[in-house]
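Anyone? Bumping this.
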Amino acid sequence: MMRNFIAANWKMNMTIPEARQFLHGFIPTVQSVQEDDIIIAPPFTALYAVANAIQGTNIGLAAQDTFWEEQGAYTGEVSPRMLRDAGCQYVIVGHSERRQYFSEDDVVVNRKIRATKESGLGVIFCVGESLEEREADKTFDVIKREVEAGLVEVSFEKLVVAYEPIWAIGTGKTATVEQAQEVHAFIRKILYNVYGDNADEIRIIYGGSVTADNVDNLMSSQDINGALVGGASLKPESFSRIVHFKKDIS
Ligand code: PGA
């Protein structure tokens, strides 16, 4: 059985005291979860504090971005090696907010993924179409391009793919289970083309306005192996409820 992968993307939220307070409330409520992976991606400034606070628990740590070089004169950047040093197991790469506000294209995303994997860290690789692309019937073309370009010379180990339709991020407009399932199945097919049977090990998670109210429904879908949660991961109660999703098979 594949372990589900439930990740919190805190984006540019949470000071160190706020992060500690969140964990104080959150950790006891998820201690019993053994069958799934729980990951928190705080901002860079809180990584080390969160790493310390989750030590010995069933919660893992991710960064929200990285640079592709290991070290050197790159003012303001942080390398995979440094993230590993701070206690991370994963890095989110290719989030649509990075693509949109910081002009990251498929080549940059691929470089970051390769550097992250080379340092031994896992990758949460985000792809997704905009509303215009969906309305112009380009969803599958965009997804195919992003997935294939992002995974050039990338091995399947410790790889998680996140399908995040841009129109569903932070908007309260979740993709329907059918819309998500359709794209997840499509991504799975591309992964089989790239990795053969090893693709079986890759979790494909959904992101975009996941909440405590819709997670059960989404997680009941065959090809949805987890969730990447933004807004609803900022409160211990709601993220805890999401981690404790129940498959809705009615
Ligand atoms: P959201 O963000 O849950 O607030 O829509 C998800 C994400 O961008 O990862």
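Late reply, but here is one note on the structure posted above: The chain has one domain: 5-243.
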